[in-house]
Structures are given as structure tokens and as C-alpha cells.
Specification:
globular; about 30% helix; six-stranded mixed beta sheet; alpha/beta
Length: about 270
């Protein structure tokens, strides 16, 4: 199975270990994200996805192993890591009293950008929010709020964005709206690490897929490479390839892993 190879790495995780008391959550995670790609990290509830993200954004320190983001070690240079990333969590971190435009202008001002108004206008257009730009964000649909959240993540053009289950709780239409936004991130050259429980989401968006189970990455490759792990299934006249869901369930077994303890939401880091 191929790896990220010699391509420049946006995220480089090697042997990451994290425990909460006697409970081992990460048991030696290796993960690489090449620049300008979308990598989906799949795992059941409690597999350790959010713990890994919290380490990568410097909100939590690993017990062992190393991790770097945009070439910066998360322990040695957390300041440089934070300046290179944006994090969108499971809840859209928008101010519902402010308009969509005001939300974007505020983030641009906090990032000390030269022309916050122009930045806001460009992102509103890119994420198809121009018509709703001057409405309070509280009047937006859930899908629109998530698109606004993604637009806010792009303020200042951070090279790496981490999306921690960004479509949790959304209906199918809103989920597809967010997918369009995520694709736009990659098309703009942004590196994306997407954690998700939705297998279709990984199939639709990711150039590579890693499966985290019982604290380790047990498979990592393209969709075609993961499908090749299972034997082909044939009927009389039609060849049927295994779906990503079948690959996932075959690799982790029938039961999920409930080892990751609940932790307070870190919110959205800008």
C-alpha cells in the first residue's frame, strides 16, 4: 500500500501515545497528510479521533511520540502551529447575533489582516453566502452556518485545516453543502485532516483514508487500496467491489471501541 512518500507533509504523526489514567486511548498512532490533500480519519466513537486532533492543535500534550503541523513541532513550537492552522469542530462557531459579513470581518480583524471588508466579500462569494451576507447568522440554516464556519476557517489562508466531524447532526442536504465547502478548501491548496464517522463522507471527499481503531491506525491508503484488502465479490455476471463500509467493518470487527473518555469541547480555534 502506498504512503504519502516524499511529498511535503502538512501533518506528520509518529508513534503518538496518550492515556487518561489507566485508559490507553492512543497506542502508537502514525499518520501523514501531504500538502494540498484531504485525508479522512475514520473511527468508531471513542477510537481516539478527537484526542488526536486536540494534540495536533496544541490543546493536549501526548505522553509519547512526535507530531508536527506545517513543519512545526506541536510541543517545541506551539505558537507557530497555531498560526498555521484552523480548527472547525462539531458545532459551528459563529456569532448568531452578527451577520455573516460581520462574523468574517471580525475574524479578519483578529488576524490583523489589511482589508477585512474585502476578505469577507471574497469568502462570502466563494461559499455562496453573498445573498445572506447581511442577515444575522442566527437566521441561517444549519448547512449555511457550517459553510460560514468553513469560510471563517479560511480567513488568513491557513495552510492546514482540521475538521473534527464537521457534519455531525446535519441533514443530507446540509451535509452536501458542507462537502462542497470542503472540496473548495482543497482546490485552494489547503491541506485538510477530516475526522468523520460517515463512511460516505470519506468516500466523497478524501484522497486518502486512514482507519483508527483501538488506538492505532490499522489501515491507510486510497479507497482503491483499501478495497483491495478484501477479496472481490462476484455474482453471475456483475463484479461487485466491496464498499468502504465493508472494508471498515471487516478491519475493526463487529464491535466499536468505547475507550476514549468524554472531554469538554475545545470549541473552534482560529
Amino acid at each position: 500500500m502506498s504512503t504519502a512518500g516524499a511529498a511535503p507533509l502538512a501533518i506528520d504523526v509518529r508513534g503518538l501515545v496518550k492515556s487518561y489514567g489507566e485508559l490507553a486511548v492512543l497506542r502508537g498512532v502514525d499518520l501523514r497528510v501531504a500538502r494540498g490533500t484531504i485525508v479522512a480519519l475514520l473511527g468508531s466513537n471513542g477510537a481516539g479521533k478527537t484526542t488526536l486532533v486536540r494534540i495536533l492543535v496544541t490543546l493536549l500534550r501526548a505522553d509519547a511520540g512526535t507530531a508536527s503541523v506545517a513543519g512545526h513541532d506541536v510541543v517545541a513550537r506551539p505558537d507557530l502551529v497555531r498560526s498555521a492552522i484552523s480548527l472547525a469542530g462539531q458545532v459551528a462557531a459563529v456569532d448568531e447575533v452578527l451577520t455573516g459579513r460581520e462574523n468574517l470581518v471580525l475574524v479578519a480583524q483578529l488576524r490583523h489582516l489589511a482589508d477585512p471588508a474585502s476578505v469577507a466579500t471574497d469568502l462570502l462569494e466563494r461559499y455562496s453566502l453573498t445573498d445572506a451576507a447581511d442577515r444575522p447568522a442566527g437566521t441561517y440554516s444549519r448547512g449555511m452556518r457550517r459553510r460560514l464556519d468553513l469560510a471563517m476557517s479560511l480567513v488568513g489562508e491557513p495552510p492546514v485545516i482540521l475538521l473534527d466531524e464537521p457534519t455531525t447532526g446535519l441533514d443530507p442536504q446540509a451535509r452536501h453543502e458542507v462537502w462542497r465547502g470542503v472540496r473548495a478548501l482543497a482546490e485552494a491548496g489547503t491541506s485538510v485532516l477530516l475526522t468523520t464517522q460517515y463512511l460516505e463522507e470519506a468516500e466523497q471527499l478524501a484522497s486518502r483514508i486512514a482507519i483508527l481503531h483501538d488506538g492505532v491506525v490499522i489501515a491507510d491508503g486510497t479507497l482503491a487500496e483499501l478495497r483491495a484488502l478484501l477479496p472481490r465479490v462476484e455474482v453471475t455476471s456483475v463484479e461487485r467491489q466491496p464498499s468502504l463500509e465493508e472494508v471498515f467493518l471487516a478491519l475493526i470487527g463487529s464491535g466499536g471501541h468505547d475507550g476514549e473518555p468524554a472531554t469538554p469541547s475545545a470549541g473552534t480555534q482560529r
